[in-house]
Amino acid sequence: MRKFVQVSFVISLVFLTSCFDVLDEITLNADGSGTYGLTVNLSKSKTKIATMMALKDGKTPTEAEINEEFDRVVDQLKTMSGISRVVHTSDFDNYIFMLEFDFEKVENLNRAVAQIITSREKEDGEFSISYQFNKASKKFTRGYTYRADEDKVDEQVKAEDQDLLKEAYYTSICRFSGQVTSCSNREAKISKSGKSVLLRSSAYDLIKGKSNLSNTVLLK
Amino acid sequence: MKKSLSLLCILAGASLYAQDLRKHIPRDVDFVFEVNSSNLTDKLSISELDESVFGEMFLSELSGQLGREFTSVNDLGLNLDASQYFFGTFMDDSFVMVYLLPLKSASTLEDLLNSENEEFIQFDGYKSVAIDGDGALNWNNSMLSLVMVEDNRYGTQQENDLALNGYLKPTNASILQNSEYANQYDEAAIGSIWLNNTGNVLQQLANISGGMAETAGNLHAEAVKNFYRGYNSFTVKFYSDESESKIVSELTLSDKLATMHKAWANRKFNKEFLNYLNIENCLGYIAIKMNTQAYLETYPGFISENISSITDDKYTKAADAGISMFSLLLDEAAVGELIGGDLVFVLNNLVEREVEYLDYAYDEDYNYTETLKTKTEKLPDFLLMASSKEGDFTQKAIAFLEDEKMVEKSNGIYKINDGKELPLDFYFLYKNDILFLGTSEADMMAIRNGTFLAKIPTEHKKSLKSNQMVFYSDLKKLKTVLKEDDLGTTYYKTFSEVITDTPEFFATSTVSGNKLTGEFVMVTPEGHTNGLTYLLSVIEKVIQMK
């Protein structure tokens, strides 16, 4: 029976498209401590993911493998100094995965983020995010480096996958206790209250190097 | 010499009058490719060929290389009414390939070669010019041959003889005397490929790719030959007319292999299936039939024999042990009853279904809340039917699944409940020793109640009864249900722009006599003169898209 079900799953795979959203959120207190949250939402593609997982093709991770990987990252974060209240949720009905922790200083956050990135990135050094906060000058900076190789993207990412990447979004929200006076990134938007900054880009633009997540925020 | 080669390339696309160059092909060659230019130009006029994307490409390339304007392949001095051939022979240490082309007159060719200041060697009745040490171009007033020799021992007498002869004189022992070749020859084909011995050709190709001088390469080639022993001559023919384009392949098997394949194929099509197939309502289907019992009984022996030829003794013993175990554990007859070996998968439709997903709504301060949204997805609506006796085993298995709450029964139909939300509902039921699995509850009810409306044209019925495998697809219907969102922009663009006329496809395969045959038919869509002009238009579109 399973084989029969698999046949139909394979057929259905052909006709499905998928996309995803990544949301990262930093709440920074005046003393430089704060909360970091990362959410990966695959809900829009849940039919496809459920299908791929049901197929057990050996390439798509199983629930157990995803949980194991998640637990491994969480365990590592828990041992890091300056990191506390590490929580995570895995919603396998909607395929939404969330990780959240508190940090004492931005330096602690940087080490934690580097840990998360290196646990996912096989080729290190291509992509990095780091934060700086100067309490005296009230300047918050997100450094973002990515060695984009446009040709490589066009060569290695199939055209149909490129279409999907255009539908996938990365959203970054930074919340501050004080008012924001300026942002260096032209794409960044300041909220009505003046205390939050939002940056949003398609995964395609990020991979192609067309958009940049670097931003320097000056606070009042 | 490049110019001469370009000239030859041009000729591959077209060809004129009835010289039978087969008389020049030796009887014992290993392969022969033919383009029947007369049939080709029947379907595709010279002007159509000139104006096609290939014609334009070649003419412009040739004009550029030779520094003179060519506007038609007709200007090249070729006889576009006779067939052209490419054949080859594998020898102990060399590989000879020959291209034979019929000429209208030699003057155009000589003119072209003279412009390159090539020096011709004159022989008795023909002329020749060497090509960079590995072959020769030879011609007389009615034909041209390009002889290429790849060898390890450069310049043996035998090869020189071959090259010098130039295949310009008919031989008494020609391919026409080869009964295998003569029997399969069909003058109606536009193009054809014939391999004298599939195993031998594959071995020689492995030999060439593995490096002829290396022992490992030779061992590998020997193994390939052994694995394919019993697979004798192989032919592929291409036909095209107003109504369809067709590719027919035929593999001749040794008696032993043929007996085995026939045993595998020895199963009648389950006519009951025809009661549940409605061609007007489906997008396509795949039907397969096989004698499971015969397959399970003979396959281990077949594999065992072939593994012994490709691996060393240690692995052979291990494989033998595994295969014996396989035979011991399986009750072939019982498995044969459970899995009859014939099935039909019908893709009825692609149905839109609303699926919910979680997104985020942001307020003016970028606080967000999860919001439930819906989107439409297209999912397959299918029916799969397979011959299977509902015996003790299946009843017990279903009872177990019911106990485990993996299936639930309602109105005599089982619904699969995998514990997770499946993207589709799956139902199954047994009726008249057929297992039905499908996504439509209504279809299942109709099958159970005997009210399923079947509609199947005679040619489909005939094809299903006589073939081991049948694949049918109605792209015209598929195009009406597929939207850009379903395939993604790139796939959709290719699908909708290239296959604008959306024909029907039919592919079948069967065993008859000692031959394993396959057929691929594409119906010529309305508005096209014939299959060939349609195929050419599709290829042009693909090229233009790139």
Please give a structural write-up:
- The complex is a heterodimer of chains A (220) and B (546).
- Chain A has helices at 2-14, 46-55, 63-78, 106-120, 150-156, 159-167, 203-208, and strands spanning 21-28, 34-41, 83-91, 96-103, 127-134, 139-146, 169-176, 180-183, 189-190, 196-202, 215-219.
- The model of chain A is unreliable at 1-17 and 121-125 (pLDDT under 50).
- Chain A is α+β, with helices and mostly antiparallel strands and 220 residues long.
- With 546 residues, chain B is α+β, with helices and mostly antiparallel strands.
- Chain B has helices spanning 2-11, 37-43, 46-51, 53-66, 107-114, 157-165, 179-184, 198-210, 215-227, 255-265, 292-310, 313-329, 332-338, 392-403, 441-449, 458-466, 475-481, 484-487, 489-498, 531-545; strands at 31-35, 84-90, 94-102, 121-122, 127-131, 135-139, 143-151, 191-195, 231-240, 244-253, 284-289, 342-362, 368-387, 407-410, 413-416, 427-431, 434-438, 469-474, 504-512, 515-523.
- In chain B, strand 14 (407-410) and strand 15 form a beta hairpin.
- In chain B, helix 1 (2-11) packs antiparallel against helix 4 (53-66), helix 11 (292-310) runs antiparallel to helix 12 (313-329) and helix 11 (292-310) crosses helix 13 (332-338).
- Chain B is globular, with a radius of gyration of 30 Å.
- The chains are: A alpha+beta (220), B alpha+beta (546).
